[in-house]
Amino acid sequence: MSTVERSVPATDSAWATTETRVLESLSADEISVVRELLVAAGIVGATTRFVYVGLNEPDKAQVLAHAARTAAPPERLARVLLLDIASGGARDLLVSLSAREIRADTPIDASRGQVPILEEEFAKVGTVLADNETWCAALRKRGVDPAATVCVPLSAGHYDIPGEEGRRIIRVFAFRQDHPQDHPWAHPVDGLCGYVDIITGELLQLIDHRVYDVPEEHGNFQDPDIALPGNETLRPIEITQPEGPSFVVDGDHISWANWRLRIGFDAREGLILRQLSFRDGERERPVMYRASIAEMVVPYADPQPTRFWQNYFDTGEYLFGRFANSLRLGCDCLGEIHYFDAVLSDELGMPRTIENAICMHEEDYGTLWKHTDLFTGVSEVRRQRRLVISFFTTVGNYDYGFYWYLYLDGTIECEAKLTGIAFSAAYPPEGSPYQSEVAPGLGLPYHQHLFSARLDMMVDGVANAVDEVEVRRVPIGPDNPYGNAFGAKTTRLVSEVGAARDADASTGRVWHVVSTDHTNRMGAPTAYALYPQQQPNLLADPASSIAARAAFTTHQLWVTRYHPEERYPAGDLVNQHPGGDGLPAYQSADRGLDGEDIVLWHTFGLTHFPRLEDWPVMPVDYAGFTLKPVGFFDRNPALGVPESRAAHCCHPGEQ
C-alpha cells in the first residue's frame, strides 16, 4: 500500500505549474512505439489483436512528490492486453515508454476471466451463424429468412454451463431487418438464442425455447409518419459569448474561475478528471486527485431460458470509451465549445483518433445567490454558471452521455444521460411480469443501469476520513418538551469492512470526506460531502451470478484505502469472470481509513420499467450524484462573482 508523505501541503500549487506529462493519456506516437516494441520482441503475429492499450498510471505518491519537485518523474508505462484470435490465448503486458522495454508479460488464465470483447469478434458472429444450418433452420421455423436477419452478439457472463469452461463465449440474439435503414430492434426473433465459441467458430448450444410471432410494426423514429405534429413553432436558441469563453486550456490542463484540473481519456473508462483543485485566495487547495466512471452494468430482469443471462458490463466487457462519439457543434453541444480529441489504439495496435470526443463549455445555471433586504434596502443577485465537460458513447442499442459539472460555489456534479433504443423482446400474448409492452407484440424487459464512480479524494491533502452523517430524531422529553428538536448523528467509518454503506432517504444520509490535518476558521475539519440519489441497489437475488460478479452494485458506497493497482470495482478482467474480485477483495484486507489516503466508490443509477414513451427512441433519463463543500471554505466562496452586465439585464437606476 502506498501513501503520500504528509509533507505535501494543501497549499501546494504544483498541480497548476508542473511541466511534466506523467498523467497525460498516451499519444499516437507512444501507441506506435508500444506496437513497434512488441513486434520487435516477436510477441505480435498475424492473429494477434490489441484489446486494450492505455496508460498504466504511476503511484499517486510518486506523482505528488514529482509535482512538489522532490522526486524525479515516475516511469511512463503502457498497459497492453493482447488476444490471439486463432488460439484464444491472452496476455497482459507492461511496456516502459521511458526505457523502451517490456517490463512484464503475464499469460491470462481464462478460468479467471477473459479480456474484453473485440469489435472484430462482434462482426465474426454473423459470419459464423450465417453458415450454420441449425441456426438457420430455427429462423426459418419462425418464418424468417436468415438473410434478412442481423445477429446481436452479447457478453456471456458466467453460469458454469457445461462445455463453456475456458472457452471464449458470445451469446447471440437474432433480429429481422426489413431494409437497410430499418432499425431491427423493432423485430426481435425471440425464443431463440445461440451460444458461440468465437475462437473456434462453433455454435456450442442453441436454446430454442419458444416460437413467438415477430413484431411487425417498425420502430424507425427518423420516419416523419410516426412523429407527433405541433413543434413547428419552436424557434432557434442561440448561446453566445461575445468576449469568448472564460476557461483557459493548456494541453490537458484547464483553468476556469477558481477551478484547476486536468483531463484524460481511456478506452476503458472514457473521460477522466484529474487533480481538481480550487483557488482560495493565494492557496491552491486540492479536492480530488482522480475521478472516472470505472464500471457500469446493465442487469435484466426477464428469467426466460433465453434471457436469464442478460447483464452487460459496458466498461469492463466492452470498453465503452472506444465507442465515444465525435460530437457536433449545435447538436451535441451548444455555445462556445472547446473540443478535445481522444487518441486510442485500434485492434491492430495502430493509433486512431476520435475527433471531438470530449466537449467543454460553460452554461448559465440560474440564480447563484440573491437577497432583497427589508432593513437596508440592498437588493443583490448573482448568476450561477457551470463548466461542463462531457462525452457520449454508443454501446449497441444504448447511448450514454457522461457530464461532469463544476460550479462557482465549489460544487461538483456527475450526471449520466441515458438515451438510445431500449433492448427489445417479443411480448408474450399471455402477458409478462418482467416486460412492458410498447408496441403490438413488442416488449422491453425491465432492467437497471448501475454505474460506479471511482472518486480518489484529496480534500486539503491526502490525510482524509469519511463520516456518515444522518438525521438524529429527538423524542419529546425534558430537553425537547415540545417535540420540535432534531439533530445530526455522525459516525466515522474507521476501517474497510465496515465501509460498505447504503443510502437512506428516511434519514437523509450523506457522507463527508473530511481532512484530518486541516480545519476551517470555526475549528471543524474541512470537508466535501457526497450526496447520493435515492435509487435501488442491485435487485437480483444475492445468490445470483450477477450479484457475485457485480458486487459493487450491492451498496451505494464503498470506501477503500488507496492502492495503485485497485482501479476497477468489479476487478481487472470482468468478461466471463466468476465473481469475487474488485471491491470485496479490496476491502477484505480491512485496512484502516481514519486519516488515510482514501478512495470512494459510489454506485448510482436507475431502475428502468420502460414506458410507451420510451419507444421507439428513449428520451434522455438521468442519474448522478453531487459533491458539495461542507466547511471547506470559511464563507460563501461565490461572493466575488461579479454582477451580470449583459445588455438585456436591468441594473439599479435603469428602466
Explained architecture:
With 655 residues, the chain is mainly beta. It is built from seven helices and 31 strands. The protein has helices spanning 14-17, 28-40, 60-67, 119-130, 133-141, 545-549, 583-587, and strands at 48-56, 77-84, 90-96, 101-107, 149-155, 169-176, 188-197, 202-208, 248-250, 253-256, 259-266, 270-280, 283-299, 311-312, 338-345, 351-372, 379-395, 398-407, 412-420, 425-426, 435-439, 442-445, 447-457, 464-473, 486-493, 500-501, 510-519, 525-531, 557-561, 598-608, 618-629. Strands 9, 10, 11, 12, 13, 14, 23, 26, 29 and 30 form a ten-stranded antiparallel beta sheet that branches. The longest helix has 13 residues, at 28-40. It is globular. The protein starts with 13 loop residues before the first helix and ends in a 26-residue tail after the last strand.
What's this model, at a glance?
The protein has helices at residues 14-17, 28-40, 60-67, 119-130, 133-141, 545-549, 583-587; strands spanning 48-56, 77-84, 90-96, 101-107, 149-155, 169-176, 188-197, 202-208, 248-250, 253-256, 259-266, 270-280, 283-299, 311-312, 338-345, 351-372, 379-395, 398-407, 412-420, 425-426, 435-439, 442-445, 447-457, 464-473, 486-493, 500-501, 510-519, 525-531, 557-561, 598-608, 618-629.
